[in-house]
Automatic annotation (TrEMBL):
<keyword id="KW-1003">Cell membrane</keyword>
<feature type="transmembrane region" description="Helical">
    <location>
        <begin position="150"/>
        <end position="172"/>
    </location>
</feature>
<feature type="transmembrane region" description="Helical">
    <location>
        <begin position="192"/>
        <end position="213"/>
    </location>
</feature>
<dbReference type="GO" id="GO:0022857">
    <property type="term" value="F:transmembrane transporter activity"/>
</dbReference>
<dbReference type="InterPro" id="IPR037294">
    <property type="entry name" value="ABC_BtuC-like"/>
</dbReference>
<feature type="transmembrane region" description="Helical">
    <location>
        <begin position="309"/>
        <end position="327"/>
    </location>
</feature>
<dbReference type="GO" id="GO:0005886">
    <property type="term" value="C:plasma membrane"/>
</dbReference>
<comment type="similarity">
    <text>Belongs to the binding-protein-dependent transport system permease family. FecCD subfamily.</text>
</comment>
<dbReference type="InterPro" id="IPR000522">
    <property type="entry name" value="ABC_transptr_permease_BtuC"/>
</dbReference>
<keyword id="KW-1133">Transmembrane helix</keyword>
<dbReference type="Pfam" id="PF01032">
    <property type="entry name" value="FecCD"/>
</dbReference>
<feature type="transmembrane region" description="Helical">
    <location>
        <begin position="60"/>
        <end position="82"/>
    </location>
</feature>
<feature type="transmembrane region" description="Helical">
    <location>
        <begin position="234"/>
        <end position="251"/>
    </location>
</feature>
<feature type="transmembrane region" description="Helical">
    <location>
        <begin position="281"/>
        <end position="303"/>
    </location>
</feature>
<keyword id="KW-0812">Transmembrane</keyword>
<feature type="transmembrane region" description="Helical">
    <location>
        <begin position="94"/>
        <end position="114"/>
    </location>
</feature>
<keyword id="KW-0813">Transport</keyword>
Amino acid sequence: MTAVVKRIFVVTAILAALLAAAGFLGLTMGSSGAGAADVIQAIRDFFREESLMHSIIWKIRFPRVLLAALVGASLSLGGLVFQALLRNPLAEPYILGISGGSAIGAIIGILLGLARFPGVGMLAFAGGMATLFLVLGIASGQTTAKKESLLLSGVMVNAFCSAGIMFLLSLARDARLQNIMFWLMGDLSSGGMAEARLLAMMVLPCFAAIFWLSHKMNLLLMGREMAQSMGVNVRLVSVTLLVLTSFMVSATVFQCGLIAFVGLVIPHLLRLVLGSDHRVLTPACIFGGAAYLVLCDLLARVLPRQGEMPAGVITAMIGAPVFIFLLRRSSA
């Protein structure tokens, strides 16, 4: 077993244990009063006859924890890929407007009355891809440094997407408006096992494909010419990674709305601790991002005295200061 493989196993084991602990905490929190002892009993009785507490934990809380884990893993991994391909530590799906573009596509699908899947989902993916190519197109025409051009282009497109979302919301003058507003803020409360299962079917193959390409991501960091000289088909690998990432981000937006900055905070923290080897960072971002969003959703449930808030509020409150810190450091 090589040193890299050992490192991947160790990092994955540690972060998987963190995710398991976060998931256990997520299962113990809820308005029904079921605590840690009830969760342990429900785990023991997984294959036995169902009780009320068993149903609460496995049919209500577990799907929400699973959904949060899948969304967190997808957004974190998406941020890692964007940062590697664009060679910009500030690149992430929300800041670049990819999430906003996906939201516009999803809202159009909802207003048109299309089926949630595949109609709304396909429009969310189309919106995300259109936004991605728009950002890259605008940045390529700028004369300032590419790093700054890309970030500014993303901010501009994101602002345009926000305006487009507000315009579309003004057209929804019925009972769907409140649901769309809550969904836009990153709501995980409405997700059930069917939504979690569908999201898993969409993003798990992307996780595997990105891990398979992680070594080529390392070579791309050495520069286009160097990567080509080492046998990497740069265009094919880059397009494949961009499509996979946009698909993952669109799938999360389609299910849970806009959840910001997960793709910025987690890859940055893990890169500081683990270095820049994407063969290690890829599984680390999957498990680290999953644990992070499960904990953020937990905070969103316990912090308000009454009710709960969308998990996207918590991730934005944490991520915005981190973004400002990174922006100031990159400008220094």
